[in-house]
Design brief:
Radius of gyration: 24 Å
Number of domains: 3
Number of helices: 21
Strand content: 5-15%
Largest sheet: 5 strands, parallel
Structural class: alpha/beta
Helix content: 40-55%
Distance between the termini: 49 Å
CATH topology of the largest domain: Rossmann fold
Shape: globular
Length: 441
Amino acid sequence: MTRSRVLVVDDDRTFRLSTAALLRQDGHEVVHAEDGTAAVAILKKEHFDLILLDLRMPGLDGIGIVEVLRTWGTDTPILMISGFGTVDTAVDALHTGADDFLTKPVEPDVLSARVEALISRRPMSTKTGDEPGSIIGRSSAIRSVLEVVERVAPTDATVLVIGETGTGKELVARAIHEQSDRADGPFVAVNCAALAEGLLESELFGHRRGAFTGAVRDRTGLFEAASGGTILLDEIGDVSPAMQHRLLRVLQERELTPVGAVKPIPVDVRVVAATNKDLRAEMEAGRFRDDLYYRLNVVRIEVPPLRTRRQDIPLIAEAFYDKVERRPHSGCSPLAMRLLQAHAWPGNVRELLAALESAHIQAGNRRIEAQHLPADVRGAEDQEREPHERYRRTQPVGHEKSDIEEALAAAGGVRSVAAERLGMSRTTLWRKMKEYGLVDE
C-alpha cells in the first residue's frame, strides 16, 4: 500500500520533529519545513496527502499559506494547529480554508486520529479498529450502533447521541459526518458544559461589534463556521433554559441572529447533539424543554458502555499496541486479558486506553502480565481466580449469547479458542452454550 505523504510546517523545532516522528510511527511519509516560505517552495514541487500547519509563524503564517494554496486551487486537506487557540482563531482558520483545527498541546492519539480522518476521507465507523480514532469492535452491541450510523448518515436528520462518559460519542458524531454528503465540509465540536452561558451564546451564534463590552469587532459563531458541514453540541443536557430556547429556534427556523444583530442569517448545518444525561428525566424535572428534546431526538443512538461489549476489549487492546509499537507486539498474557475483560470500566474506553498505556510503560515493551495492570483492574484475588463469574454477572444475556456465537464462529468452532477470546474457562463456555441452547443435547 502506498504510504500517505504529510507536510509538517512549524517554526517550533521540537514540536515539528516530534510530530514528524509520531506520524512516521503511524506509517506516513513525512516532510517538514520550519516556516511558511520554505513550505511554499516545497509545495510548488511536491504533492502531499495532508498539510499540517502552525498558525503563528514569522513571515508567512498558517492562514497565509492556506490562502496561497486555495488560490492555486489545491484541495489537499489542511490541519491547522495553534498554541493560541480561541474560537476566533478556529473560525478564521476554517473560513480561510483549513479543514480542521487543534490547539497545542495536542495529545498524540488525538493528532493521529485527526490526521487519519483527514487523509482517508473514509467513514471512521466502518473501520475494524486498526486505525486510530475509529470505532473499534465487532460485538453485536457496537454493530447495532454502526448500522444506525450507516442509515442516518446520508440524511440531514438531527441525531441525539446518548452514552456514558468515555464511550466515544464524539467518534459516533464524526462517523455520521464522514459518511454524509457533508463530509467535505467542516466538523465543529463544542462542549456546551465547558462555557458560561453568555460566552456560549456568543461562540455559537457570533456577535456584532459593540454588542457588549469587549466586542471590538464582528465575530462569526460556530454555527456559521460549520456551514455546509456538521456541528456537534456535546453535553447538550447542561445548557441553560434560555440557551435551549435559542437552540430550538435555530433548529426550527434554520436561521440565527448573532448577539447585537437585528436581522437573522440562514444556516446550513447538520446538528448532532450528545449527552450523558437522561434527558427524559431532565424534562420531567423541568430542567430541559420537551419541544427541544423532540427536535433533537429525531434519530437516537445509544452508545453502549464497555462493560456490555467486553468481547471488543481484545480488539481495542490490539489496535492500541499496533499504534504504540513499531515492531510486532507481544500483547497481553491470558490472565491479563481476562482481568481486562472482567473489570467494570466505569470510565469506559477512555479508562481502558489509559490502563493499557500505563501497563505498556510498566511492562517495558515486554508482554503485559497481570502485575503490570493498574491495581483497580487487577482487583481482588477472587477476581483473578474466577473472572468469568464477573463476566456472567455483568454481561446482558442477549449480548452474551451473541458474543458467544460470534466467538465460536471466529474460532472455527474450536471451544478452547472461543473461551480464550471470551475470557472464560472451557467449562464455563460449555455450560453457557447449553444454557443458551447452542449445543445439541
